[in-house]
Amino acid sequence: MKLFINGRFLSQKLTGVQRYAAELVKAIDALLASDQSPAALRGAEWQLLVPSETSEAINLAHIKVRKIGRLSGHAWDQIELARAAAGGRLISLANAGPVFHGDHIVVIHDAQVFRRPDFFNWRYLAVHRTMGRLLARRATIATVSAFSRNELAAMLGLSKTDIPIFPNSAEHFASTTPDHGILERLGLQLGKYFLFVGSRTKNKNLAVAIEAARLLERKDVPLVIVGGDNSKVFQDNLGESESGLLLAGRLADGEIAALYAHALAFVFPSLYEGFGVPPLEAMIFGCPVIASTADAVMETCGEAAAYFCANDAQALQQLMLERLAIGAISDQERRKQQDRLALYSWQDSARALLDFLASRA
Q1: What are the chain's domains?
Q2: Taking the alpha carbons of 279, 294, 24, 71 in that order, is the dihedral positive or negative?
Q3: What is the pLDDT of residues 198-249, one digit of tens each?
């Protein structure tokens, strides 16, 4: 038996989807290397197929990494990957893959292109809606949460029972060594700032967090904004000191870990998610979470977060005020966080994927 993994994610900019693919591949490799694969998959040949342009390295013990082709992007997926994976089972973990491969499982992380077309330009919508519909006819669709399973089933005309779930995890951050020097570099005091980590994409809804920070009127407790293109944050030309915001830009994982560890709370105002990993990353470091009521976010965080309607900046401001009054995280809050974190493991997701593959062997 030949099993191929679509490695195009290694040639792409690192976002949550690419991190999911990398961590799941490493977890699968660890299970295979320790001879923990299901009996039906024993002796299978595993290859991670990557574009020739790939510079990102991934250290694997059992899965062979092979560079193929000369193309890039979707053309590589549809032509060169499809050719190289012919005659074997293909696993694509990052939303896309060759639409005419006969034995293919594709993890689609959410249904945003169908549910929220206002988040995307028309070219992106056309490509990804068409690809999603074609893959739904030809491949097995998998996803990362019960919410996304329901959404994809409704949008693609599939049965929910035919869509397996292989969840995200935040364990990759647990091994990150915090770089506490970032607080001094940013001029921050312990427990005297709120934190936002995310891109400037529309679904992340940063504008509501900014408005809540302004309503809070606490320049001594700023909202620290990490990631994305922060040059567009100040559309009205207000300076940071006037707005209660601190723009940190892109930071290394160690710096982000330190900010999680010492923030008064992590703010996650997302409008739409397929899962919602950043709140779990915050919980690893004992950071209280204030999150929107987006369905997938509530599914992920359970009772370990305080919630507000994503469009209600005043409700977010009120929760920030309450956090200021409460102060540091309590033992009870920390236990709830640890209970949520225990539900998600890359090894468990990798094992679930291997078990699913074995059931179709």
Answers
A1: 2-169+345-359 (3.40.50.2000), 171-341 (3.40.50.2000)
A2: negative
A3: 988 999 999 999 999 999 999 999 999 998 654 444 443 334 445 799 999 9
